[in-house]
Write a structure and sequence with these properties.
alpha+beta, OB fold (Dihydrolipoamide Acetyltransferase, E2P), five-stranded mixed barrel, globular
Length: about 140
């Protein structure tokens, strides 16, 4: 018969193993994939969000929020699209409000947010971009 100490010691170990297993099950991208996505992004820029639009979600799953950010480019670290400082761009993004299995959930940004983003140009002439590395697109 196990002692009370053995039972209480086994509980935290079991919980830790369960948490580690669940974490691994949610990791959808292979090791190094996020780094490759960032490396291959067309643009690595710093922006300030000037407008946040929540787009209609009639056909989206419950808890999925489609977003369109309008942002002003404040610094260009790397560009293949030719975007310049002072340009206004649009960023297609999304945010899950419920837990989901998949890549890192992008944060829900607010007007005024400043930071760096890895982006892929969808149409550089119209200033339309999308996140290059899901929720890991931000630096």
């Amino acid at each position: 018969m196990p002692t009370a100490l053995a039972r209480w010691t086994a509980l935290p170990v079991t919980i830790a193993l369960l948490a580690f297993t669940c974490q691994q099950a949610w990791a959808v991208l292979p090791p190094g994939a996020t780094d490759d996505l960032k490396k291959n992004a067309t643009d690595k820029i710093r922006v300030q969000i000037t407008k946040v639009e929540k787009l209609p979600a009639s056909k989206n799953p419950k808890g999925y929020m489609k977003l369109l950010y309008t942002a002003k480019v404040i610094k260009v670290d790397r560009t293949k699209s030719g975007v310049k400082v002072g340009t206004t761009i649009k960023i297609d993004a999304y945010h899950w409000t419920v837990p989901f299995a998949g890549p890192t959930n992008p944060p829900l940004l607010k007007k005024g947010w400043k930071g760096g983003i890895y982006l892929n140009a969808v149409d550089a002439k119209t200033g339309k971009f999308k996140l290059a590395a899901y929720g890991d697109s931000f630096y």
